[in-house]
C-alpha cells in the first residue's frame, strides 16, 4: 500500500458554510507526515473526514485502501484537538473501555505507558494536567495497535515541556510499532522535531508536499541586484519575490546548481519554506494538482 489516505475533490459543507472545497491529497504510508496550514485551511475537517467522524459533501476519501468510515476503523488511532477524555472516569476505566471497544487492544502497551509516565491508574481524568490528558489520549490511540495514527493538533494547548515529552513518546511509538502518522500542527518546530514528510494546506488546497529533507535541499533564497523574475533560468521556480529600488530577493525551488555569481544564495529553514507557500496566491480551482509535489 503506497498511501495512508487519499482525497479526491473532497468537500465538506455545514449549511451554507464551506469548510473544505475540492481538496485533492495523497498522504504516503510509512511516514510521519506534518500537516500544516493557517486557521481555516480545512485541516481539522480533513482529518475528521479521514477517521469517519464526518461524511463528505462532495468528492471521496480512502483510508488504508478503503472508503473512510468503513471496517478499517480498528486500524486507525485518532487523537483529537482537545485530547478528549472522560473527566469522571479513572485512567484504569479508560483502559478498560479501550480494551472493550478495540479488538486489537494491547493491554501491556497501555499499562506499560501509564506506569512509565508515573500516572496513578485510580486517578480521574478530570484531575489530570493538560499534558497528562494528552498522554492518556495518546496511550488510547497507540494501544489499539493501529496502522495509521492521526493527531489533530494534540499539543496545541500544552506548555513547551509537556509538548516535547508528548512528541518524544510519539516518536518512540512510531519506532516500536512502525506506524504511519499524520500530525496536524500550527507549530513548525513540532513538525521539524517529529516529521519526515510535509504537506502545506491553504484554503483546502495542497501548496507543497514532499520529504522534508528533499524540500529543504531544493529551496533557496537568492539576494542580489534588482531584476525581473522572468529573467531567471527556466529551472528556477519562483515561490515568492520581494524588491527594493536596487535589490531583489527570491525564494525559489530548483534541482539545478545556481551559477549566477550576482546572487547571494542561502538555503531555507523549514519555517521559511512553510511561510513562503502559505503566503502564495491560491492556484486555480480548475487545477487539482498541488503547486509542488516532491517524492523520492
From TrEMBL:
Gene3D superfamilies the UniProt entry points to: P-loop containing nucleotide triphosphate hydrolases
Keyword list, A-Z: ATP-binding, Nucleotide-binding, Transport
InterPro entries linked to this entry: AAA+_ATPase, ABC_transporter-like_ATP-bd, ABC_Transporter_VariousFunc, P-loop_NTPase
ABC transporter domain mapped to chain residues: 5-228
GO molecular-function terms, A-Z: ATP binding
Coiled coil: none
Name the UniProt record assigns to this protein: ABC transporter ATP-binding protein
Species, as recorded: Kribbella ginsengisoli
